[in-house]
# Entry
Amino acid sequence: MCDSLEERSGVDLTPQALCGRMNSDGAVQFMEAALTKTLRETVGPPLTAQEAAWLAPFPRVLLQDSSQIEVNEALTEAFKGSGGNASTASVKIDFSYDVKNERAEHIAIRQGTDSDQGFATDVLARVRKGDLIIRDLGYFSLAAFAQIMLIGAYFLSRLSYTVNLYKSADEAASPINLIQYINRFGGGQQTMEFSLFVGEKHRLPIRLVVYRLPQEVYRKRQKAAIKTAKRKGRRARLSYLKFLKYSFFMTNVPADVWPKEALGTLYRLRWQVELTFKHWKSLFCIDLLKGTRPERIRCLLYGRLIVILTVQRLLALAARQAENEGRELSFDKAIQWLLRQDRFLKAFVARQFDTLMRKLLGNLRRLLKAKRKRRTTRQLIAQQVGYLDSFSDSSEELDNGLAAESYA
# Structure
């Protein structure tokens, strides 16, 4: 690295001097400021009118999730981990992505032991009226939902197994037995909707949409739940196994905006964040963090995130061109092409992204996925395909995700 710096900028540094600069608060502040600037500037093109049909009422659609990275155990004091079979030191990256406008909305570095639910309300400082927030059950917080509603924004979430539901907001009302309620008022339908109130304290008015899942999906869920309970030294509760026969989604989006068939399909957008983390680790090696100084770890993380956000911006433009041609970009192939022969590094240093983009589009045909019958999540949303109807052409991916989803 010292040789590269001298070659490009004429700065003569020893490895020790470079490490000394990285292991400083000033370097951390500089890299953090650079990441913040990158976040502001990496804005992608908006979705087309057809794609945005179900998303049109919302100026932003925020997906939020986190990923954990183990670091040297000497960093336990700065980045506390969960221990046990995992490292006693780990870093958690909390990531919020505006999928409608194709831009990273927020990134935060936390300790590994920080729970997602404990930071579920952090997004409220950035939420605007009309926004839509989609998060998994790790962020399930009735207090956060209540504040989102007060702001005039919207949420879409799975229903937690442990939460109470009520037929009225009356404090004297008793919680319902959800499975019995479905059997009594669901009319045996595959897709059902109920207007209920959630939370013993909050009693928030929600639309609860219930999908009766195919038997093969239920069997996968049941098998996974029994295996997990056995690993933890307990038995799976019968009430929980019955709960797994259905997919439950709750929202405050009005029925005249989203029909009940839409909620499950739209929730699939959340998996884009999971795929993003997968690319970060497999292609950018963001989980390989060597060092025993917290300043160094933060500098490495901020630097890699700057590169990742810039690459994502380029890929968003290339993906749009591929979609215009009726094809789908392979992000794995495109990222590997950018990193090969130091193409991205050279363009980054020389600030020649326009030239790099032209070359990328010129090689677009080599970077496409093979044609397939299965529709993407965007295509399902654009064509307004109902949740249960989407199983036929995306069964393997969707079933595996449903089977792995935890409700506890």
